[in-house]
Design a protein that fits this description.
- This protein is mainly α and 266 residues long.
- The chain folds into two domains: 1-40, no CATH class; 51-262, MetI-like (MetI-like fold).
- It has eleven helices and no strands.
- Helix 3 (51-84) runs antiparallel to helix 8 (173-202).
- Residues 57-255 form the ABC transmembrane type-1 domain.
C-alpha cells in the first residue's frame, strides 16, 4: 500500500469514524452515551417525546429555510451586479461590504448585529425584542456573502455571448435575464441556498448574540445540554440528522443522474 493511499484512508477514517460511532451508539440501550448495552430504539422514542428538542429543531428548520431564501435573493442580486455591471463607482467598496462577513469573526458580526437591532428598536420600535426574526436576519446576512461569491464565480465563467445574442434578437433586458441569465445562474443559486441553509442550521455564535427566549435554535439547545454532559438522546438526534442528510444526497444524486440521462438521450 502506497503512502498516499494510507494517508487517504487514515484521513477518511479520522473524518467518518466518529460519525459511525455516534450512529452506532444511538441504538445502544445503555444510558451512558458511549457504552454498548444491547440494541434498542428507546432513545429515539425519548427524542420524539422531548418537546424542547423537537420545538428547537422545527424552529431551526424554519429559520434556516427563511434565511437561505433571503440570502439567495440578496446575494444573488449582489453577485449578478458584481459580475455583469462592469466597473462602476463604488464597486470596490460594494464588493468589500458584501464579502465582509466571510472574513470577519462571527463574534464581531454577531456583536455588530446585536448593536444594530438594539439601535433600531430604540429608534423605530423594530424589531420588538430578539427572537426568531433577528436570528433569521443575522443568518441571511452571513449566507448572502456566500451566495454572492458563488453566483459571481458562476457568471464570470458563463458565456456572455448568449445574453448579447438575445438582446440583438430583440429581447428586452428583463426577458434576456429571465430566459438566458437566470437559467445560467440557477445551479449557483441552488448551491448557494443549500450552503446558506447549512450555515444557518449549524450556527451557534450569531444566534447566541441575536436570539432571545423565543428564538432558541437547536444548536443552542444542544450546546447548553453538552455543558452538563452528553446524553443518549443527542446520539439519536445525530443519527436522525445523518439519515436525513444521506437521504437528501441520495435524492440529489438520483435527480442529477436522470438529468444527465435525458441530456445524453437528447
Amino acid at each position: 500500500m502506497s503512502v498516499a493511499r494510507l494517508g487517504l484512508r487514515l484521513g477518511l477514517g479520522f473524518l467518518y469514524l466518529p460519525i459511525v460511532l455516534l450512529v452506532a451508539y444511538a441504538f445502544s440501550a445503555d444510558r451512558i452515551p458511549f457504552q454498548w448495552g444491547g440494541f434498542s430504539l428507546r432513545w429515539f422514542r425519548a427524542l420524539a417525546e422531548d418537546e424542547r428538542l423537537v420545538e428547537a429543531a422545527l424552529l431551526s428548520l424554519r429559520v434556516a429555510a427563511g434565511a437561505a431564501t433571503l440570502a439567495v435573493l440578496v446575494g444573488g442580486l449582489a453577485g449578478f451586479a458584481l459580475a455583469r455591471f462592469g466597473p462602476f463607482r463604488g464597486r470596490a467598496l460594494f464588493g468589500a461590504l458584501i464579502g465582509a462577513p466571510l472574513v470577519l469573526p462571527e463574534v464581531v458580526t454577531g456583536l455588530s448585529l446585536l448593536l444594530l437591532f438594539v439601535a433600531l428598536e430604540g429608534a423605530i420600535g423594530w424589531p420588538a425584542g430578539r427572537g426568531a426574526l433577528t436570528v433569521l436576519l443575522a443568518h441571511a446576512t452571513l449566507g448572502a456573502a456566500y451566495v454572492a461569491v458563488v453566483v459571481q464565480a458562476r457568471l464570470a465563467e458563463a458565456d456572455r455571448s448568449l445574453e448579447e445574442a438575445a438582446l440583438n434578437l430583440g429581447a428586452t433586458p428583463f426577458v434576456a435575464f429571465r430566459t438566458v441569465t437566470l437559467p445560467l445562474m440557477a445551479p449557483s443559486l441552488f448551491a448557494g441556498w443549500l450552503l446558506a441553509f447549512t450555515l444557518s442550521l449549524d450556527d451557534v455564535v450569531l444566534a447566541s448574540f441575536v436570539s432571545g427566549p423565543a428564538g432558541t435554535t437547536l444548536p443552542m439547545v444542544l450546546f447548553s445540554r453538552l455543558k452538563l454532559g452528553l446524553t443518549p438522546e443527542v446520539n439519536a438526534l445525530g443519527a436522525v440528522i445523518v439519515a436525513v442528510a444521506a437521504a437528501a444526497l441520495g435524492l440529489a444524486a438520483l435527480v442529477l443522474a436522470r438529468v444527465d440521462a435525458r441530456r445524453g438521450g437528447g
